[in-house]
Structures are given as C-alpha cells and as structure tokens.
Amino acid sequence: MTAQLPASGPDLEFQAHVEDGRLWLQTCAACQTTIFMPRIICPHCGSLRLAWHPASGLGTVYSRTVLHGRPKPGDTRPSRHALVLVDLDEGPRMMSRLPGTDPDDITIGMRVKARIEGETGARFVVFDPNAEAGA
Ligand SMILES: [Zn+2]
C-alpha cells in the first residue's frame, strides 16, 4: 500500500505517530470504543471526546487477497503481494500488508504484529507474523 500524506485533522495526527514509529489509535472516552480510521466523531456514540493511545500492535488476519502485478523487466514471473485485513486486538480492522511473508504463507486467523516501514515522510504500518503471541 502506498502511503498518502493526509491533508489534515485526525488522519494527520495518526500519520504523525506513524512517522515517529508508533501505531496509535483513538479511543472514545465516552463509550471506550477504539477507532480506526481516524475520525473527529466517535462512529458508535457520536462523542467528540476521542483520545490517542498507543496500540499493542497485535492483531489477527481476517482476510487475505493476493494481487498479481505485471512482471518487471527481466522477471519471468508476475510479482505477487497480499493485501490483508487485520483485526487489531483493540477492535478496529486495518488494511495492510505482510511484506516479509510469502502470500501463500499468510493464513486467516494468523497472529500478526505491527511494524512501521518506509522512508521518513512516507512511513506506513505493515505486519509480521507473530507466532509466539498465540491466538
Ligand atoms: Zn463513543
């Protein structure tokens, strides 16, 4: 997933934490729901009292979609990568990738841990398998 610089607001704050190497999520002070994507208003109760908290980074693969790219010049096989939906332990679902894992090795229900990847100014959240965390 290519990182896009958010224009303003909660998206910008989320990205600022990612740039610092941290996965932080908003939690609603009224109903305690943890929220992603970043928002101004709690989608569950309408409260404006959203606060940023560090996330555990732990989650479970909910789904996997393998995308086939065009072969690069010199390559005989098309490039493949997987888009995953990860259910974070805090509750929200996040779309991401497991760049260090073969798409065939990604299974539904697999435990994963978040990691920040990319260059300064274009960092983004990816996941790695996290076998020792258990299910
Ligand atoms: Zn709420």
Automatic annotation (TrEMBL):
Kindly give the Pfam families that the UniProt entry links to this protein. OB_ChsH2_C, zf-ChsH2
**Ribonucleoprotein is among the record's keywords:** no
Name a GO molecular-function annotation: DNA binding
* InterPro entries named among the record's database cross-references: ChsH2_C, ChsH2_Znr, NA-bd_OB-fold, Thioester_dehydratase-like
Q: Which residues form the ChsH2 C-terminal OB-fold domain?
A: 52-116
Alphabetically list the UniProt keywords: DNA-binding
User: Does the keyword section mention Transmembrane?
Assistant: no
Q: Which residues form the ChsH2 rubredoxin-like zinc ribbon domain?
A: 19-49
Q: Which PANTHER family match?
A: BLR3430 PROTEIN
Protein name per Swiss-Prot or TrEMBL: DNA-binding protein
Native organism is Martelella lutilitoris
